[in-house]
Records
---
Amino acid sequence: MNELHQISLRERIRLNLISAMDKANINQVQLAEKLGISKGTVNNWARGNNSPDVDMVPKICHVLGISILSLYAPTKFEELESITSIRKSEPITDDEIEHIKKYRTLDEYGKQAVDSILNIEYTRALEIQKQTSHKEITAESPVLFYPVPEYSEPVSAGTGRPIDLAYPENIMLIKEPPRGTSFIAHVNGDSMDPTFQDGDMVFVHAQNEIKQGQIGIFFMDGQEFIKELGDGELISHNSKYESIELDESIRCQGLVLGICDESYFED
């Protein structure tokens, strides 16, 4: 199989930023005004002289109406090379063609949701393949580790915590996580006591909808929450905290599957 051509992260961000600006019909001057920064700063991003810092990325994505992950996602050029490489080694199945047809019918929000989940699962699958081929062997029996992406920046169980750009780092578990686990998140605050406590680590399946009565991760006004979905509201399990009324700006980012306790780690 041909190797996928790799471009630098800065170049990937530059290309994705330009593409997002074109789709949003926003030029460099307009973007600079909306962000409250100089035109020269935006011009440097567009030229690839440097990249936005971590504090600026969420603001850019909000203005352009894109997800943070999409700014770092493989470019269309990389995707095309990847598809071409796959086609040379194995034919595309009817099921894969059907998936493509369904994807093309989605609106921009739907595509962003699918892309986010796909990127997380793709990264996890690659790590599993790597671990399977290089797993550690002891004198008694093979030890299998389960790699899971972990976001160290905690989600709020209180009144909200501003989201910062965070890259997941894979942690190795010694027993299999709940089926469907996409990543691990940290809990901050006590509003979900006694179900989840401050400092807990939770397994999350990335998805954009959950059922009433389930607990999920939600994004609102640049902040992330862990709450139970109620009837038109987000519910805290600690009676000291009031519920949050749902509106169109609140988006679900995943379903909480359970606590990642000490039993999942080596002694």
---
Amino acid sequence: MTFWAFQLLNGISYGMTLFALSVGLALIFGMMRVLNLSHGAFYAVGAWIGVSAGRQSGSIVFGALCGVVAVVLIGLMIERLLRYIPKAELPQTLLTFGAMLVLGDLSLWYWGGTPLTIEAPGLLQGVVSLQGIVFPKYRLFVAGFGVVLAICLWLIETRTRIGMMIRAAIDDPLMAQSAGVNVPLLTTVTFAFGAALAALAGVVAAPILGVQVGMEFDVLLLSFVVVVIGGLGSLRGAMVGALLIGLMDSVSKALFPEMALFSVFVPMALILALKPSGLFGR
């Protein structure tokens, strides 16, 4: 029983990291209908800058702020570039994928190939005992961070004016525009917000996963799995997909590590076969 409880906590912790990463991708696609392949680079660059600034300043919070601000500025530049290319899947895909490659190479040039690590804040170091289960404090914090983030996003989506405008723009941008919603500005804000969430996820996950060259491809692949399962553009879908993949990854690595990657892609294959739009997609 202790084994399964530990794996449950571990899966939830990892799933909440995936949620913070993938929800931005889901929102950007829902608003712009752009499959943003540079999203993995937002996570990676935010982690590189956040960890570097955190190590130099001694504060991971300051590092996270630096990483988020830098990635938001990069995201705004990419969003502006997307306005000047044809609104077709191939040009948009090539631009965002090229941006990811450029950002990855710039990170390699500046930071080199040596992985970076950073310690969790002092209060979150060590372990805690929960009914006989010894579990790292920081992983519990990551799980709680994801839950709080999900609640905040849900409240914004359902209880605020900007959330209402975002939902309207996702459902019918032309009708929302005719009703007085500034859809281009809303698109810019949503793109920047999605980039900020990816960067924040990179810094939050750094004490657990570290920062290394090429991680933008890994996280992009996982975020695609999450949003395909949950449904592109769905906040609820990103949460369910992230938890499912987090739990599958944790359990499979513990029971049959040689098939861990395979087990993560099985749910995606089933969803694509049975409900191509995702669990909560339309």
---
Amino acid sequence: MNNLKSKWEDQEQAVKLAIGAGAAIAGLVFVVKILPALVAALGIGAFLAILFLPFWLPTIIAFYRKHPSKGGILALNFFLGWTFVGWIVALVWALSDNTGRAGTQSVIVNTTVNASAGAPPPPHYQVGDVINGHRFDGAAWVPTQTSQQAPPVPPAAPAATAQGDGQTAI
């Protein structure tokens, strides 16, 4: 930069004036002849960009989101995007769920079988319950004493009552 500055200072006044006049003429030609054509070209380009981007928005979104159906969205947008309905369908499709789970459902099947519908449910034991010398620890029956007794047999369900006398039949 210093080299260019020193060359400019070394020039005579007439040369500096000629360079300045040439630059002024070149600037005037640029403003009068080239700038209107440039503005017109940029105006048409901006107009096309304004039309281009919204038209291809569904395809741009699909490719950006790495949608598995981006080719179909591109084809729909290309062939039917000029119709407003085709463009809306392509946009909705591009914004739809693009993971593999979009078309799957989770189904939970309850397979509990009740062998005897009229029998009462089995008793529910809690941790610490003691029956026949065995204590329930939550997973198994543990003997409370050192005797060699067999694991407890859960008590039998009460028998059905007699017809209205309030006593149970054994």
---
Amino acid sequence: MVSEYLKANPQDQDAVGIMSELVVVTTPYQQAEKQLVDLLDKNPDNLEVRARLAKLYFDNGKYDQVLFRTENMSDDVIRSQPSLMELRGKALFNQGHADGAAKVWEKWVKLAPNSVLANFYYADSLVKSNQLEAALASLETCRRLNPEYLPARISLVRVTAQTGDMDKAFKEMRQLQSEMREDRADVWYTQGWLELNAGKYAEAEQALQKSLSLQATPETAMLLFATLNSQGRGDEAVASLAGWQEKFPQSTGLMAVLGQTYIARKETDKAVDVYRQLLAVEPGSVVALNNLAWLTRKTDPKQAMEFATSASALAPEDPYVMSTMATLLVESGQAADGEQLLRKAVALHPDNVQIKLDLGRLLLSAGKRDEARPYLEEVVVSKGNAGLVAEARELLKSGVTGG
């Protein structure tokens, strides 16, 4: 047993490393954490143990602990155990600190210019800040260092397409496909994404179906849904997405898209059912709570208000949450409170055309035509959704003029 050996040979760093690996593989999180912390306290210079502890924290969503275990690393530490830099950058990004993550990747590239991973993550951060040409340069470095590193090759296709050079993107895609020793779902997904962005819907559908046959994912199912919709095959698109939702009952993203689609199709009962399923998977989903509040406001106003109250507690300044709550307040006879909330929403989100339309409509219903006019006029002159502009124009014509 390694543990018995370590009692007699506590300074054997290789054995300490082996022990740390066994701990992660064989014990539950809390017990593994305690054992790894104990190992690291006794062997503070053992970077292998430190990396395993940081990875344990990362895999369990303990990003603050990852950052604590990876702070103030010397250049030598980073070069010796680059996984610590990788985990630090990912932890920062998952906490919403994209700029901090980008600085980590940039420093890593400077310290290890021949690291494929460092260049790849740095390229990804450049894409997110819309520095596409610089990102392509880093991805080309990845290809030079390791032509078989697939994530970088896939990113080359996507980023090249994002720069607008579709001919080159397709050339990269053809080269990638020709070098594949076997069919891969992620490569076919990228092919489908590229074809869809080029408006080649039949080709996109074929590629995505191929990807799904190799390895089905919610993301691929949603992209196929968009592809079918783009061909005017709305009913088929919805049926496809609903079928995949049954196969991926934990995918909140897929359910959100399906629910919104049912709303657009005015299939309220189906939308309510999907959002209830979403809420069961993610009780704190603001999207599900807010849409359920809106969809059930006529059939079950009491429960609708409960949904809206929960959504407001989670996202008190979200414009759509504020609009839904305002509507419920008005419909429950609290028009003044609803108006006050919508005015606050407009003040917080002056560029949101939908909220201005909602406020204009509410003021009209309250007989405040002169107050409604400027909000509706702002919607009309905006370059927003054509449907919202048309509704505002109609309200100005019939409501404000009294026609």
